[in-house]
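Practice problem: GerMN domain-containing protein
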Amino acid sequence: MEIRPEALPSRLRETALPREVSPQTPGPGLVSVVVNFVRKDRLVRSVREVPNGPAEDRLAAIVAALVAGPTERERASGISSALPAGLQLTVTTLDGNRAVIGLVGETGGSAAENVLAVGQIVLSATAIPTVKEVTFERDGLPVEALLADGALTTNPLTAADYAALRAG
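Answer key — structure tokens:
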């Protein structure tokens, strides 16, 4: 039998449910990172705590957070993800200031959803100060990505390419 959290007495809910940690106070050995999700067809920033470590590890944690999607609290406030459910992302390489993200699975969706999905990934990855550009690959081959204006490119993508998609 499943017990819903709201069915628990309040004194048990407070200790039984994990609390979201304030982004201003990361726990020991943790660092706050920015991930981007969607609200009303605009990209919005969310904060996640990840283990403090090399940029490659932080980038892998950001990619995992994007795949996991918004928290329950974020979903309740209207935040969603444009990433298709069947899409898997991996950090293929981090070479200098360029991250190469591997794609596995379906990338379907409308052009608008695909632009937002690419924007989510690029803005999240480039939130790491040492990552300035992102490219995508599938099976070791470059993948075209949609820019915010709808143009396709295999050129490295930067945060500036998707700045227009950010919520005001």
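Discussion: The chain has a mean pLDDT of 85. Students who identified this feature from the tokens alone can consider the problem solved.
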